Amino acid sequence: MKINKKIITGLLLIANINMVFADNYIGGSFGQSEVNVSGFDKPTAYKIYGGTRSTNFGVEAAYHNVGAFIAQSFLGETSTTITGFELSGVGYLPINNNFELFGKFGAFSWENKLNIKSMNFTAKDSGTELTYGIGAQYKVMPALSLRAEYQKFINVSEADISTISLGAAYIF
User: Fold this and answer.
1) Positive or negative, the Cα torsion across 154, 59, 30, 101?
2) pLDDT digits (tens, 9 = 90+) for 81-111
3) CATH of the domain at 72
4) pTM of the model
5) Count of domains in the chain?
6) How many CA atoms lie within 13 A of 158 on its CB side?
7) Which domain holds residue 14?
């Protein structure tokens, strides 16, 4: 997969911004995806993410494996696997010292691998589209937070994908 120049620029921006922001973090999450196309199952999704933030604003980058969506059709089993990189701005709303809500908006540079087993057919598609999400996180201890998140990926291979996930982050 080619790494988009915008993603590289964004990651360099994150590296330079951390001098201004108070907290840096790295984490991972697991959950379930759903696509707005009928007939496909709801696969397991995961992501590895990291970012930097102040009290109310941050920047986050992530690698996503949105999952392998599988459907049965007259052609047999069809699967499509979507992966990609995200770069988003994140806004935080602290509720108290340990609990906060967040919203994010950014870009998702994706790759879709299609496989129709009965025909021994494979194809790839890629692009960069919008993503947004909302969630909540709870700081269990000064260096560990737990996160619940809903995220939407818009127009990925002409379909919208939603993920719901639970994760944890190390804060340094």
Assistant:
1) negative
2) 999 999 999 999 999 999 999 999 999 999 9
3) 2.40.160.20
4) 0.83
5) 1
6) 2
7) 5-171
